[in-house]
Amino acid sequence: MNRIWSWLALSLGLVYFFLPLIATVEFSLKMRRGEYSFDAYRKVLEDPRFQETFSYSVVMALFTIAFGVLLVVPTAYWVRLKLPRLRPAVEFVTLLPLVIPAIVVVFGYIRLYNTSSWLPLTGSATGTNLLLMFGYAMLSLPYMYRAVDTGLRTIDVATLTEAAQSLGAGWITILARVILPNVLIAVLSGAFLTFAIVIGEFTMAALLNRPAFGPYLQLMGANRAYEPAALAVIAFAVTWACMGLIQLITRFSKHTKAAR
Amino acid sequence: MTAPLPAKLRPRLPMTWLGIVPFIIFALLFLILPTMNIVVGAFQNPAGEMTLANVKQLFQGAIPAYYLISIKISLASSSIGCLIGFAVAASVTLGGLPKWIRGPLLTFSGVASNFAGVPLAFAFLATLGRLGLVTMLLKSWFGINIYGLGFNLLSFWGLTLTYLFFQIPLMILIITPALDGLKREWKEAASILGATGPQYWRMVALPILFPSLLGTFALLFANAFGAVATAYALTGSSMSIVPIVLFAQIRGDVLQDPHLGYALAFGMIVVTGIANGVYVWLRTRSERWMQ
């Protein structure tokens, strides 16, 4: 009886989740009248705007990940090592991006960093890119911090630090050659999640007027019929790849741990 | 905790703070100050004087209706998302389904909960739009024209149905660990004392899970309330929910008074702040149980 209900709940869930995916794939193949074809995909991939915006977002994602790692790993490490009493406060701040809607924060950016302000980031393309990257780092902060902090929990931070110090290592050496390799798996899963978030992000990029993939998607959606479905399939594949890689590296890490 | 530190450590104490200064600066510049700027701006007029006029405007004209529809969609998608997500998570953790389902389900939930935004809107247009697969199949197989029956994807239920695509997986992701935390001994103890299955759920499991359930509900609510991209790609500006109205305000489409924009944004902070305040509070309470 119990099991029947379980199967029922699961299969209802499966129908709800797979129907849109099937429908999207089907729709994306319908561009040529009367037969299935990859025309929509070809159109999309050939579109120079697609190539520009997609590579822009990929580059932004990579910069965001690099910045996020440089910001989060030392902070989480330092908090665990020296300031454990501040941990709840720092954690609270890292969770704030889940509380404050991104649209509110970016509104604040526009007001705070406009051309007539003390830090006119929106005055130049480079400045706006920088601002957008900081915004993305802020969006991914909850996930990145949580991932790294979980990674740090599994290693003995204090002992590793003392061992490295007694061998004469400075702080940068400790972080780069002792701590980072030990939490690399956690950092990578945070990085892939960041990538998945940044690649399709719409609100911030649109309001800061940057040529990112998200606004391009929206523009296509407003003007084309079949290409959006193809783009949705591509976006889903990217998300799926990111999550799959997270799964893969965590499994890989479990494997190496078991071997020790 | 408050024991005095050894004297020779004391001069070095201020130095340890320096380690998180980059983080503090980042959080201040790109999270806290921008938000504060909006909050303060909500209470100022264009001349920079303090005023309550903007906040008062939130209760005038069409604006309360924007908030109402936003809150309704968020409530509907988060409560339905909680129910279905719970049912799926419970059937996988406790319902006797094969073990191998769990891993793929959680991975898929991770994907689907991140598959929000513009592509999600496209997927639902391809499914339930006027030319969507399900719409067409229902018409040709059963002769049911859902648009003739009054269904519209660009409506309250359409948007709710779309939001569920990321709400349900998020619920599954958060509630599965909580369900794992239900100890088998509790169920055994309850049945030894003569409790039936429903009684165990009503009197033991649900009270224990209640804080995390309600807390997750609050998180899902905030998640739906702040979502811009999905709704915008789905409906353009035709659906007047708060994030979309604010988006149009910032874009300058309808900008007459930037301080009304501040007030709209401030209203959003208040609503999601309340929802997440409940979440944080209940979360700390539920963690006491789940040791």
Description:
The complex is a heterodimer of chains A (260) and B (291). Chain A contains 12 helices and no strands. Chain A is mainly α and 260 residues long. Chain A has one domain (42-259): MetI-like fold. The mean pLDDT of chain A is 87. Chain B is mainly α. Chain B has 2 domains: 16-51, no CATH class; 62-289, MetI-like fold (Orthogonal Bundle). Chain B is 72% helix and 0% strand. Chain B contains 13 helices and no strands. Chain B has helices at residues 13-17, 21-42, 53-57, 63-93, 102-114, 118-128, 133-142, 156-180, 184-192, 197-225, 229-235, 242-251, 258-289. In chain B, helix 2 packs across helix 13 and helix 12 (242-251) crosses helix 13. Chain B starts with 12 loop residues before the first helix and ends with a helix. The model of chain B has no long low-confidence stretch (mean pLDDT 82). Chains A and B meet through helix 1, helix 3, helix 4, helix 5 and helix 6 of A and helix 2, helix 4, helix 5, helix 6 and helix 8 of B.
How much strand content do the residues of chain A show? under 5%
The count of domains of chain B is 2
Q: Give the terminus-to-terminus CA distance of chain A.
A: 44 Å
Distance, first to last CA of chain B: 23 Å
Structural class by SSE content of chain B? mainly alpha
CATH class of chain A: Mainly Alpha
CATH topology of chain A, which one? MetI-like fold
Low-confidence stretches of chain A are none
Describe the global form of chain B.
globular
Q: Kindly state the number of beta strands of chain B.
A: 0
What is the CATH-assigned architecture of the largest domain in chain B?
Answer: Orthogonal Bundle
String of helices and strands of chain A: HHHHHHHHHHHH
SSE order of chain B in H/E notation? HHHHHHHHHHHHH
CATH second-level architecture of chain A: Orthogonal Bundle
Query: Which band does the percent of strand residues of chain B land in?
Result: under 5%
Radius of gyration of chain A: 22 Å
Enumerate the spans of chain B where pLDDT stays under 50 for 5 or more consecutive residues. none
Q: How would the global form of chain A be characterised?
A: globular
Largest interface: A-B, 81 and 80 residues
CATH superfamily of the largest domain in chain B: MetI-like
